[in-house]
Structure formats: structure tokens, C-alpha cells
Amino acid sequence: MKTVRIISGILLSLMLLFSETVGQIVNVLDEGIRIKNVNELFNDFSFEELVNFSNKQDTQAYDSLIQTLTSIEGVEESTAEEIINGEAFTNIYKDVTIQLIKYLRKDSDNKQTQDEVRALVSNAVSNIQIENVELSDEKKAEISDSIMNGLWSFIDSLYVKGDKVRAFYVFNFDNHNVFFNVRIVSVIACVVIIILLCIVLWSIGKSFLITGLISVVVSVPFVLIGIGKEAMIPIKGNAMFEVVRGFFKGFSLPILLYSIIGVILGIIAIIVGISAWLGEKERKDMKESKQIE
């Protein structure tokens, strides 16, 4: 029986570690995926790098844009890449990203339309300047249509993913974004796990001590992110993880507040846990003394 309780306690502790980590990560994503970070995103990364961080379909969309431009006589691949990653086209990606963020965060229920994107593409193509290459209006229109086909399928796929994210909610909080809903799930999961931990270990003191230690350990790295010292965290993730982490090179008050709350609650839980544990131990010793007498 004792072995079962120990194993159950370890499993519940790992689940608590996971739930608290998810809660803190959601706070980081909530602060990172905001319109204010769009300019920084495209200053640090080219369109090619960003699509390569995603899936095969996105890479194919980029390749389609390159093929469209290299089909023009006199345009080399290097020139096509320069155009696609240049300012005119980057402004398209910025606009698309801003509209997608608004939709994802439920700040807007409107998806960007195909006509809106077509207007952006036409404007970008009209400003293309290629050395020793003359582009007629008809050719520019043809290029716009070809680019639009590849780009729109990519944008449409992002909105399909966005619909799945927007569809996640709990307790009728459907008007709130996914970050709010995941926070709710994380908090409920932590409370349930702590209750189960108390039952399994037969000790409020031990349970609160474990909870407090986990909360402090999980929160400290996010305090570093909040004060702009994210480079001190010796954790490497995939390319997209590094993109998100790159948003936090400076001070971030929301992340700092959430993480400090985690540290404070952890310290309180440790103090309560030690106090309760000592009280439980004292009561146990008194009971054993009476039995001896």
C-alpha cells in the first residue's frame, strides 16, 4: 500500500509540474502573440525562415512564389528570393499576420478576404523593380494572379488552423480567447491534483510542500523571461520555440507578474506545508507516546 501511495504521489507531482508549466507557457504565448510584436517578428526573420519553421504545405507555398517569379525571363532565383523577402512583400505578410492575430485572439470575427489579399499583392507587384527586365501591365497582372494562387492557399490554411484554436473553450467562455480558456483548465487541473495529492499522501503538509517547491521551480525561469534575461535559460527548443522566445529580449510586465505570483504562492505553500507537516508529526508522536503509556 505504501509503495502504491509513493508511485501515485510521484505521478501526481509530475502532472502538477506539467499543469503549472503549461499555465506559465500560456502566459508567455499570450504576451508574445500580439500585434505589437509583428514588426519585430519580420525584422528578425525573413518570410522564407518563418515558413520553414512551419509545415511542408507552407514551404510549398513559398516555393510556388519563387517559381512564379523565376518563370519571368531574366529573373534568377536569388533575385526572386530578394523580391519575396523584400519590403513590398513583407508588408503583405505583416498585414496578413495582424489580421490573423486579431482573429485568433477573438478581437475580430472577420477573416481577411481573398479580395483584400489580392489588392495587397497587386500593389506589391506593381512596385517590383527588376534590373534589365521590363514588365508590362498585363505581365504584372499575370504575376499577381499566379502569386495570389499560392499565397491565398497558404493564408486560407492558417485560418483553418485558427478556427480550430478559436473553437476551444470551457464553461461557456466562448467569447474569450484560447489563452484565457487554457489558463482556466490549468488552474482547475492544479487544484484537483493538489487535492488528490493530499488524499494519496495522507498529508496536507507534504502535499503543500511538494506543491510549493514545484511552483517555485516552474516559475523562476519565467521570472527571467519577464525581466528580459531569457538568454540565461539553458533550454533549446525547435525553431518556432526560438522565434517566440526571441520576442522577450526586454522587460515584460505581464509575464513578470504572473511568474512572481507563482513564486509567491509557492513560497506560501512551502511555509504552510512545513508548518502542517510539523503539526502532523507532533500529533503522531503524541499519539504514539500515549499508546506506549
Describe this structure in words.
By secondary structure, this protein is mainly α. Helix content is 76%, strand content 0%. It contains 12 helices and no strands. It starts with a helix and ends with a helix. The model has no long low-confidence stretch (mean pLDDT 81).
What is the compact description of this entry?
This protein has 293 residues and is mostly helical. It has twelve helices and no strands.
Tell me the radius of gyration: 27 Å
Number of strands: 0
Compute the separation of the termini in Å: 29 Å
Query: In percent terms, what proportion of residues is strand?
Result: under 5%
Mean pLDDT: 81
Biggest sheet descriptor: none
Low-confidence stretches: none
Helicity, as a percent range: over 70%
What structural class should be given to the helix and strand makeup?
A: mainly alpha
Shape: elongated
Instruction: Supply the number of helical segments.
Output: 12
Order of helices and strands: HHHHHHHHHHHH
